[in-house]
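Final report, closing paragraph on structural work. Over the funding period we assembled a curated collection of sequence-structure pairs, and we close with a single example.
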Amino acid sequence: MELRHLRYLCAVAEHGTFSEAGRRLHVSQSAISEQIADLEREVGGQLLNRSPGRTRLTPQGQIFLAEARKTLAAADRALEITQSSLLGQVGSLNIGFFLWGAGGFFARIIRDYRKLHPNIKLSLYEMRTPEQMEALLTGKIDIAFARPLEPPFDQTLRAELLYRDPVVVVLPRDHPLAGKPISIGSLVTERFVLCDRQMTTALFDGIVALCSTAGFSPNIVNTSSTWSGVLTLVESGEGVALVPSGVRYLRPPGVVISPLVPQNLYMGLSVAWNPQNEDPIQQNFLRLVRENKDRIQRTHGL
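Its predicted structure, as stored:
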């Protein structure tokens, strides 16, 4: 049984004659008659009472027509949903982010996307960059706002740099240098608190290299696996820290953030995705991010 058989039967029932049904459907009268005859043979009984004046449904035809209309409505709905999905208008999108790194722009883009695509089920997951990379590979998330790709993920995932987050100095509030621009050389005698190297390899190595260029090795007295832990250690007087400026969103009251001069150490923030899972929904979201890219860079993530 084909959908066109059902559509022909509906048309004849609605318009009363094969000729009028054919005219409305742009199909010959004989073609409709043959198709409905095929349908009646398949059903095993007569669905129409044919007469010169008006063709009417048999009782069995009325029963069949009611169910046929349900089938056609379901088929039309399936077609509509599928076409909308192909255009990225229905479906779901899972996005990973880390709160202090996403910057002020993140919430704005999410709000804009919800307005543009109200039928997309949008889910947000806070997770660190390594977790986001694994989640992209497994398909748990579709988009990640994370640090630039590093091996081995740069071989399978794709990313675009949105902006470079400058590294700043975090000190206890009562530190003599608090509130002033700080050069790396002025920290030669300080104790350093860093985020674990396995969590931020590029930044950890960048800090060590920066100190080396200034003629000293940093006295690393403690590390933490989280930036909130680093800030707590600084607040407790353990030492000073060099962190991406986005960490200011986590700043406790007992620390002060000072600019690093000259500013030559940054942490990039990228939008990343898995090209093997790319679909119109992801493409629409990435298009929105790209439209905002100039503003993100101009405002340093705001």
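The first helix runs from residue 3 to 15. The chain has ten helices and eleven strands. We thank the funder for supporting this effort.
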